[in-house]
Amino acid sequence: MSRAPLPLSLPRALLVAVTALLGSAQAAQTPAEAAVTQRVEALLHRMTLDEKIGQLTQLGAGTPGPNKETTDDLIRAGKAGSVLWTINSADIERMQRVAVKESRLGIPLLFGFDVIHGYKNVFPVPLGMAATWDPALVERAQAMAAKESWVSGVNWTFSPMVDIARDARWGRIVEGAGEDTFLGIAMARAQVLGFQGPKLGTPERVLASVKHFAAYGAADGGRDYDSVYVPEVQLRNVYLPPFQAAIDAGSGTVMSAYMTLNDVPASGNAWLLRDLLRQEMGFKGFVISDAWAVHSLRVHGYASDEVDAAARGLRGGVSMDMGSNTYLKHLPGLVKAGKLPIKVVDDMVREVLTVKVQMGLFERPYGDPARKDAVLNDPAHRAATRVAAQKSIVLLRNEGGALPLKAGLKRIAVIGPLADSAEDIKGSWTLEAAGAAVSVLEGVRARWPQATVDFVRGGDMQRAYPLPWDAEQGKPAPSLMPAAEMAAEQARAVQAAQQAEAVVMVLGERANMSGEAASTSDLRLGGNQQALLEAVVATGKPVVLVLLNGRPLDISWAAEHVPAIVEAWFPGTEGGNAIADVLSGAVNPGGKLPVSWPRSTGHAPVYYNHNRTHADETDPKFTSRYANLTSKPLYPFGFGLSYTSFRYSDMKLDRAAIPSGGRLQVSVTVENTGAVAGDEVVQLYVHQRSGSAARPVRELKGFQRVTLAAGAKQTLSFTLGPDELKFWSPVTRRWGVEPGRFDVWAGGDSGATLHGEFAVQAK
Ligand code: BGC
After folding, report:
1. Which residue from 420, 611, 644, 729 puts its CA 20 to 30 A from 588's CA?
2. 482 band by pLDDT with thresholds 50, 70 and 90
């Protein structure tokens, strides 16, 4: 492995001077931190203005520079700190060689890509990973993704996305951990540890980027990129804690969001990125803008022109400009004209170099091409995707023991436009490097080798939403099958169902129907899927509905008429096998919903941890609700069935009262009362009855996924202390545990009924 020329040739006298200059800040450093600082200062001292701004620039690979330079030319001139969206290992190695060997200072590049749920071996989409409620599994998965990514040369992932999403219309709900802050914290932390290891510089890991700072998931109307209006109380209590968890776990970078937050663009918002993120939340890495977001400051009607956008981005706290070259073009002029102090630039360069030094990039600038094949084809990685997919599956309905399907089935109909898709099953944010996946059809065929498996597509749905400019560019609109063909398909599906002993219907969304720029105003099943489902169910055959989707869909009809419903999300490489494992009973599903399930599009947003607001206790008409629909979700947050059943008992609190700042233990016994082993996610919810501000009706404050043999029981213990009981009060304007009475519930979902109570007393 080649080594970069190390920028350590500063004379000792200068080092001493630098050390003195840094003064008390450095005095508080450990020797290891001081060594990093010295190395960074030494390097900074040797850099020209252009080289400094280069470190603040992430080039779009192949995008010509401001003067039509090639990417390699810019790298050679030291005008790049990072390169975006290159997945080809040979290209990465070449560019890194240019940076390390041919640029004046030999500062290695970061290669950034969205390794979101796997590199070659694809794990379930993040919403599915959250449905495992298994942070240890999530951490292992991201460590594998990191290793595959690292050997291939991609040393920086734009993940995890920790945006809380309460609105199923928002397409990017698929990329996060769902609606809950506490679950979001656990998933944020697990992913950062998985990607980076216990600290930056852990071998074979990559740099993480927690995103999108902040509150991007609260987009108006669920429309991607739309304005966000989130009051400070909600920002602090709901949206920021997963970011704090990622920062505390050491995330080396944070990605700023695209949209305006309370009218100020997040990517040029000094309060957000400097005061809050760096000063208050203690973030020590660097901030990357979202793609072209610095340029967008002008589009927002915030910056007056591109030059102003560059200044506002940097002053606003974005250290590195992703893709738009706005810094590259305009920061040198601003500094030379005296409009931007060099110190503002230097501080940002320090941040970028510090991360590069900490992650060992100077010592290990390249991936490991010689081991790439072995790592990407490691059977343990593929096996892990199957286990993760199994654990992510949520059984939503199982009337009359419709599932598991019998081993001896002779004839099975597999129906639906997604049933044979080995592409959609991988979900959005799947890289070119992703390996082939197993479709549901293949999974069923492999699991029932003796059976005749008839496959009928049955119809179609839109591949993507029609965009006006597709038509303008003469592209055919992404259309459905012609109506006559669709009708014929549907008729064939009905016929296949009639001949079968069991029917597996695979419906939902194409992979590109959720994700970025894929918000929707309609959560119903697309195309003819609903009609197809109704027609097949009308045959009277036992139907199992398998959903592949990145968000809750309107399945209110199915919830009443289809005996079994299996939520499989987009389960990844081994998805088809994992689904067949669950359908056959080889695996007992134990995933739980990380979102509340709306009954219809108009029901969104619906989330469990809302406040109880005005209610006339004598007349249920006067309470928060729709006149035509219950406010209760179709399936509650935390919900998921099993092939066995669980009973909760014996809630014990070790104290009836604690002082503010104190701790208590809550224990609860869970028993597998069925005939087979199964997983249960034991959940603990808390409610504070009164305080300086109203508190949510309940909030998740503990969970543990356990496996219990038939008849086995286990007593689990949870701690409730300041971390679980504190909140940020809009009245006192600080975090605190306020005195008052608290309810606590334990159970298998957010409707848990086993109840206890305790008090927090004033100190
Ligand atoms: C997305 C980010 C992503 C970036 C780079 C943007 O459009 O919003 O989530 O990391 O592109 O691919």
Report:
1. 420
2. confident
In angstroms, the first-to-last Cα distance of the chain is 60
Q: Which atom of ligand 1 is nearest to the CA of 258?
A: 8
Tokens of 172: 């990017």
User: Per-residue confidence at 718, pLDDT binned at 50, 70, 90?
Assistant: very high
DSSP 686: E
Please state the separation of Cα 424 from the chain's center in Å: 18
User: 139 CA distance to ligand 1 centroid (A)?
Assistant: 22
Q: Which residues of 39-51 are buried (b: 16+ CB within 10 A; e: fewer)?
A: bbbbbbeebeeeb
Asked if 39 contacts 63 with a C-beta cutoff of 8 angstroms, the reply is no
Q: Tell me, what amino acid is at 264? A: V
Radius of gyration of the chain (CA): 27
Distances (CA, A) of 627 to 399, 568, 620, 624: 30, 33, 11, 9
* Cβ 39 under 6 angstroms from ligand 1: no
> Taking Cα atoms as reference points, which of 130, 280, 113 lies closest to residue 190?
130
Query: How far is Cα 361 from Cα 377, in angstroms, rounded to an integer?
Result: 25
Distance 259 CA to ligand 1 centre (A): 13
- In DSSP notation, 626-684 reads -SSS-SS-SB-TT--B-SS-EEEEEEEES-SEEETT--EEEEEEEEE-SSS-EEEEEEE
Mutate to test the pocket of ligand 1, among 114, 125, 254, 321 (most ligand atoms within 8 A of CB): 114
User: Which tokens sit at 297?
Assistant: 């400051």
Report, as an integer, the average pLDDT of 220-247: 97
CB 268 within 8 A of CB 296: no
- Residue 27, pLDDT above cutoff 60: no
Residue type, 44: L
Amino acid (1-letter code) at residue 511: A
Distance CA 155, CA 458 (A): 43
What is the torsional sign of CA 442, 391, 252, 287?
positive
The residue with tokens 């959250």 is 130
Phi then psi for residue 360, to 5 deg, are: 75, 25
Encode 232-283 in three state secondary structure: HHHHHHHHCHHHHHHHHCCCCEEEECCCEECCEEHHHCHHHHHHHHHHHCCC
Distance 329 CA to ligand 1 centre (A): 22
| Range list of H helices, 500-620 | 529-537, 556-561, 575-584
What are residue 749's phi and psi, to 5 degrees?
A: -160, -175
Most confident of the ranges 18-22, 27-31, 143-147: 143-147
Q: Answer yes or no: is the C-beta of 516 below 6 A from any ligand 1 atom.
A: yes
Q: What are 285-298's pLDDT values in tens digits?
A: 999 999 999 999 99
CA 529/CA 537 separation, integer angstroms? 12
> How would you classify the pairing of strands 502-508 and 286-288?
unpaired
| C-beta 175 within 6 A of ligand 1 | no
For the stretch 627-646, pLDDT in tens is: 999 999 999 999 999 999 99
**3-class secondary-structure state, position 231:** coil
The SS3 of residue 78 is: coil
Do the Cβ atoms of 213 and 188 come closer than 8 Å?
no
Longest dimension (CA), the chain: 87
By percentage, how much of the chain surpasses pLDDT 90? 90
Per the CB < 8 A criterion, the answer to whether 99 and 55 are in contact is no
Higher pLDDT among residues 566 and 483, named by residue: 566
